[in-house]
Amino acid sequence: AALSEFPALHQTAKAKSQGPKLVPFLVTIVLYFSLVRKDPQGELWTTVLKCLPIFALVFYVVAKGISLKKEYRRSLWILLGLVFSSGGDALLNINLFPFGMISFGVAHVFYISAFGWKPIKWFIGLLLYVAVSLFVYFVHTKLDEILIIGVPIYCFLITTMLWRSLARAVDSRNFLAVFCAIGAILFVISDALIAVTMFVGVPLPCARLQIMITYYAAQFAIALSTADDGPALQRSLRKKIK
């Protein structure tokens, strides 16, 4: 039988075929972890190295195929999310935390747009919002005048991003959607590690490595989820439904 008759197999094969386009990402990951051995102090070279893996993922999304057509809308939203994520990386690296948080907040808005609002899966959202509300309540006394407003808004956005990715994965149950949801979970874990070190004061062993490994893995999974965008797969899915 043709792969088009089995969407899950088609998506797995499609993901495996993306290897050559992901080589720049792997190279820049090796460069970052090889050359940046300690917490950066705002130097230009560490900022560039930190942003390079995300730019490599931008290259991947463009190289695998993208346009303004409806079939590529999810790729476009994720591309914009990656661009604003790289801006957030740069701002955090030069110690402009509030502005970096705003840039990442915008990135999550684009990711939410990419994941969509169907199916809604209210129960998943409710559980996540209860959990994040408890977290915000716990840390709000440790926030200054700017962050006491910005952190709850950011937490709401990243929680919404996680909710929409999980809802999409539960509904579709295909490889790329599930992989993307894992990426969203890793994104939340990465930001939670930052919050624990910054606001709670818990000393984590190799904190930067934990934060950056989970962060890059998250962005990789989200970017790879665009591998099935385009008219070819959507036509095969419509035939399968008929």
From TrEMBL:
Q: Does the keyword Nucleotidyltransferase apply?
A: no
Which topology term describes how it sits in the membrane?
Multi-pass membrane protein
Its keywords, alphabetically, are: Membrane, Transmembrane, Transmembrane helix
- Under Enzyme Commission nomenclature, its number is 3.3.2.2
The residues that cross the membrane are 44-63, 75-92, 98-115, 122-140, 146-163, 175-201, 213-233
InterPro entries noted in UniProt: TMEM86B-like (IPR012506)
Location in the cell: Membrane
Which Gene Ontology molecular-function terms are recorded? Answer: alkenylglycerophosphocholine hydrolase activity
Q: Give the top-rank taxon of the lineage listed in the UniProt record for this protein.
A: Eukaryota
What are its GO cellular component terms?
A: membrane
Pfam families, alphabetically?
YhhN
Catalytic activity field: a 1-O-(1Z-alkenyl)-sn-glycero-3-phosphoethanolamine + H2O = a 2,3-saturated aldehyde + sn-glycero-3-phosphoethanolamine; a 1-O-(1Z-alkenyl)-sn-glycero-3-phosphocholine + H2O = a 2,3-saturated aldehyde + sn-glycerol 3-phosphocholine
Similarity annotation: Belongs to the TMEM86 family.
- This chain's protein is named lysoplasmalogenase
Upper classification of the organism:
Eukaryota, Metazoa, Ecdysozoa, Arthropoda, Hexapoda
